[in-house]
Amino acid sequence: MVVSSAQYAYANDCSGVLTHISNVIKHNSYTCPGCREEMVAVKGKVNVHHFRHNNATCSYESYLHNAAKNAFYNRFNESKEPIALIMQRAITCQSKKKLFLQDDSISCTNLVEAKFNLRGLFNEASLELYDKSTGFTPDVMLFNTDNDSKCYIEIFVTHECTEEKIASGIPIIEISVNDENDIKYIQESDFSINDINIFLYNFSAKEKSVQECHQNCSLTSHKFETWTLSASGRLNKIEKSFNHLSENELSLNNCWPVTLDKRIQTESIINLVKEMDPRNIYSNCLKCTNASGWDDGQVSCAIKHSSVPYTEAKVCKYYEVVEV
Predict the structure, then answer these.
(1) Rounded to an integer, what distance in angstroms lies between the CA atom of residue 306 and that of residue 286?
(2) What's the pLDDT at 53?
(3) pLDDT bucket at 317, cuts 50 / 70 / 90
(4) Alpha-carbon distances of 18 from 15, 25, 40, 168, 192, rounded to whole Å
């Protein structure tokens, strides 16, 4: 695709530094990042300011590709400001709260933002440097002279990274460039895995374990029930997911998983009723010597040989409680 030269807002100055049309210096010479031919600054009062080729137009794709990689290279070498690479890190919860699940196979893992400074990871950058170890020539290669780590910066205008290059295992940041707004993005923005024009290959942030709940619990499907006794002596149950309960709430003896074994659940409810009503103010079949079991508000009565509501103790002539 060949585009009118009026769209060219960038050119290289005599030092090879990518320069926007708004920053040109009068009488300086400029060349096209794509074809390296001479360009002149056009800053009239009618048309949008731009660079123009002196003799011919240039492939817009080639122009964008070279301008973009020069933009990254210049930013890395000329500015001392951090260049952020934002990825996602897996955080695994090992807090005391998780112990209340009573199941070691359940894992609470969440993805959080992990920000790295490319300047802190690498201390040098080279344009189109041949990598002897892989046989590839990336658009820009970042490397660290202290530990031999490296990273490829690849500009995607018409050709994305090949499978062979990705398979090399070298960390790659591929930046999709569609127009000159993307060049400005390269010059000024953080590079985030969430950006639509950023593709990361062979990058991973090391997983971390935390001893404190990270307040963004992913265990929404694990339900717990909390029991209370009302002023009238009725049992009330509130069901909540694990992520909405605090460690303090879970530590109370009136809270347990909905999947708790029926026998243990029955024992827990009976003990809870006795604890909440030690003076036996309220009649409750759960405290009756003739009752057993618990099934969603019903208990088995040995005298009536049937299942009855736990509140029937209020009117039952067979209600008998063993005083402790």
Answers:
(1) 14
(2) 86
(3) very high
(4) 9, 13, 14, 30, 23
Which tokens belong to 133?
Answer: 């170890």
| Structure tokens belonging to residue 105 | 């196979």
Strands, E assignment, 177-297: 191-192, 198-201, 208-210, 223-229, 235-241, 255-257, 291-295
From residue 17, give the alpha-carbon distance in Å to each of 12, 77, 140.
5, 11, 15
Name the token pair of 27: 């009488």
The model's confidence at residue 66, banded by pLDDT at 50, 70 and 90, is: very high
Contact indicator for 213, 93 with CB cutoff of 8 Å: yes
Residue 145 and residue 300: Cα distance in Å, rounded?
Answer: 77
CA gyration radius for the chain? 35
User: Per-residue pLDDT tens for 250-287?
Assistant: 888 899 898 888 889 888 988 888 888 888 888 999 98
